[in-house]
């Protein structure tokens, strides 16, 4: 019995895509399916995505992350922004409390104002930009990602796991970039 034409076409299409990926990306094409699965899994587990975003700076010097073609902070930022946007649009996000938002805004405005007298404008502008982008996302994302007490417990558990892994790697190798 012959397989249906759809199955044959599907396998042929997959083979063509795999061949094109191998030509374009070389050996890295082998990682594409794993990467696709990881992206889908992180989007389906936004608490883990948030913890990865919050802790990526600790592991940024690791050899494995240095070999990636894309900056891991940028990749996690894009994924987390997408998840937060979907949750805001669907009404699943909480409002950021004013007791948190007001001090953040005041600090951010003062940071921008301090650029008028900084001796190294480029460095100060970079820090201000990171504050208004990366730090803002780190402050607001938990209100998009955490839905209930179970999610909050999961967030703390994953943060603890990330901290322990970072500590063990640092104790073993002297620094995380030693891995």
Task: Explain what the structure shows.
The chain is mainly alpha-helical and 179 residues long. Helix content is 76%, strand content 0%. It is built from eight helices and no strands. It has helices spanning 5-25, 32-44, 46-59, 63-66, 72-89, 98-113, 121-145, 149-173. The radius of gyration is 21 Å and the shape is globular. The relative contact order is 0.11. The mean pLDDT is 90.
Can you describe this structure in just a few lines?
By secondary structure, the protein is mainly α.
Beta-strand residue percentage: under 5%
Extended strand count: 0
Note the total helix count.
8
What's the main sheet like? none
Rg, please?
21 Å
Kindly state the percentage of residues in helix.
over 70%
Structural class computed from helices and strand pairing: mainly alpha
Q: What would the principal axes of the Cα set say about the shape?
A: globular
Mean pLDDT: 90
Low-confidence stretches: none
- Give the CA-CA distance, first to last residue: 52 Å
Order of helices and strands: HHHHHHHH
């Amino acid at each position: 019995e012959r397989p249906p034409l759809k199955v044959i076409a599907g396998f042929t299409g997959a083979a063509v895509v795999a061949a094109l990926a191998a030509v374009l990306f070389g050996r890295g094409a082998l990682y594409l399916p794993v990467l696709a699965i990881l992206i889908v899994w992180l989007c389906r587990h936004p608490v883990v995505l948030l913890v990865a975003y919050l802790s990526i700076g600790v592991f940024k010097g690791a050899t494995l992350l240095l070999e990636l073609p894309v900056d891991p902070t940028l990749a996690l930022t894009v994924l987390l922004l997408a998840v937060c946007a979907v949750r805001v649009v669907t009404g699943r996000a909480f409002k950021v409390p004013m007791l948190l938002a007001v001090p953040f805004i005041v600090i951010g405005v003062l940071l921008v104002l301090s650029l008028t007298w900084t001796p190294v404008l480029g460095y100060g502008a970079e820090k201000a930009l990171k504050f208004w982008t990366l730090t803002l996302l780190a402050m607001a994302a938990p209100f998009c990602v955490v839905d209930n007490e179970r999610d909050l417990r999961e967030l703390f558990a994953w943060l603890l796991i990330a901290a322990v892994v970072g500590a063990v790697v640092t104790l073993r190798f002297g620094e995380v970039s030693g891995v």
